[in-house]
């Protein structure tokens, strides 16, 4: 069997149509994928994410998912964030892929550990000012939520280690400092938001298990090449927003709508909006490539 893991599809924010999703199913079939896991931020709504998992499953690719921060804003009960009642939801649980291999899904969270020296009060204030996540009612302080999640994850990892299962681990948030970007110059102030990217404590925990071979995550919206650290290979190639896609950059350069030095979120959005029809044609032609670049594929014996 062949597993694909994908994160940050953002179906609603990217205005992905039925035809666009059909293209993704086509790409997965061309890659001989038999199982798919969506590692969070599939959409801004848990109901829509469940519907997408059902759609892919109905197309013959058994699909599971964990949540990212974007699904959580619509959930009022913090308990449901970790134990959502949907058959495709895979969080703090394993899914057997073969006799010897298990996929573990884990929403994860953040604990400000990627911004050393910052206080909880400072980070709470910044979150309130700048982040989508201020709408998420977790029912406790972020570092404490992360404590609780890691305490629930450890017994599952211990059990799979005891059973000598090879583990493929999928999560939404960043588990290691190697995947945190530090900006300089005028963009330096954005470094403060690194507090909300994930938790180095997750990476430390995972490193204790030699049976975990691969860890796939997203949330950072920056694609990295697969990176081996210790015995684990880390995969981070989120699909991300339209303004972040490679196809969008290519469209703007090839049509001489923007020069590389002019690329800013606002200029990209404006240029796409003003050339919507041509962009949509280009998107239809190149979306399959963008999908392929954001898939992490695993052949399972
Ligand atoms: Fe995202
Ligand atoms: Fe996210």
What's the domain count? 1
**Percent of residues in beta strands?**
15-25%
Q: List unreliable stretches of 5+ residues.
A: none
CA distance, first residue to last residue: 7 Å
Overall geometry comes to globular
CATH topology: Purple Acid Phosphatase, chain A, domain 2
Summarize the structure.
With 301 residues, the chain is an alpha/beta fold. The chain contains ten helices and ten strands.
Describe the structure.
With 301 residues, the protein is an alpha/beta fold. The protein has one domain: Metallo-dependent phosphatases (Purple Acid Phosphatase, chain A, domain 2), CATH 3.60.21.10. It is built from 10 helices and 10 strands. A 6-stranded mixed beta sheet has the order 4-5-6-7-9-8, with helices on one face. Helix 1 runs parallel beside helix 10 and helix 8 crosses helix 10. The longest helix has 21 residues. The model has no long low-confidence stretch (mean pLDDT 97).
Looking at this protein, list some descriptive labels:
Purple Acid Phosphatase, chain A, domain 2, six-stranded mixed sheet, single chain, 301 residues, four-stranded mixed sheet
List the helices and strands and how they pair.
Elements: E1 2-6, H1 18-30, E2 35-39, H2 46-58, E3 62-66, H3 69-72, H4 78-82, E4 93-96, E5 101-106, H5 120-130, H6 142-162, E6 166-171, H7 200-206, E7 212-217, E8 224-229, E9 232-236, H8 246-254, H9 265-274, H10 276-293, E10 296-299
Parallel strand pairs: 1-2, 2-3, 5-6, 6-7, 7-9
Antiparallel strand pairs: 1-10, 4-5, 8-9
Helix pairs in contact: 1-10, 8-10
């Amino acid at each position: 069997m062949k597993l694909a893991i994908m994160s940050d599809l953002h179906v609603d924010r990217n205005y992905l149509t039925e035809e666009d999703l059909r293209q993704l199913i086509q790409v997965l079939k061309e890659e001989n994928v038999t199982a798919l896991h969506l590692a969070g931020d599939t959409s801004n709504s848990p109901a829509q994410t469940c519907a997408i998992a059902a759609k892919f499953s109905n197309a013959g690719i058994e699909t599971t998912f964990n949540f990212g921060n974007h699904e959580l804003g619509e959930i009022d009960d913090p308990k449901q964030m970790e134990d959502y009642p949907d058959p495709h939801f895979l969080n703090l649980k394993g899914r057997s892929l073969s006799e010897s291999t298990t996929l573990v899904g884990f929403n994860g969270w953040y604990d400000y550990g990627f911004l050393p020296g910052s206080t909880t009060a400072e980070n709470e204030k910044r979150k309130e000012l700048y982040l989508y996540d201020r709408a998420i009612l977790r029912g406790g302080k972020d570092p404490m939520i992360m404590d609780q999640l890691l305490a629930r994850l450890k017994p599952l990892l211990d059990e799979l280690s005891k059973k000598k299962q090879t583990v493929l681990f999928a999560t939404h948030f960043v588990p290691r400092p190697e995947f945190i970007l530090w900006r300089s110059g005028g963009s330096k102030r954005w470094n403060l938001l690194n507090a909300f990217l994930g938790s180095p404590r997750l990476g430390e925990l995972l490193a204790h298990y030699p049976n975990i071979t691969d860890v796939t995550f997203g949330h950072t919206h920056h694609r990295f090449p697969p990176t081996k650290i210790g015995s684990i290979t880390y995969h981070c190639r989120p699909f991300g927003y339209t303004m972040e896609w490679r196809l969008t950059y290519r469209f703007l350069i090839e049509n001489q709508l923007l020069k590389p030095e002019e690329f800013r979120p606002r200029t990209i959005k404006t240029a796409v909006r003003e050339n919507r029809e041509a962009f949509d044609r280009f998107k239809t032609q190149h979306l399959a490539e963008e999908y392929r670049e954001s898939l992490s594929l695993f052949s399972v014996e």
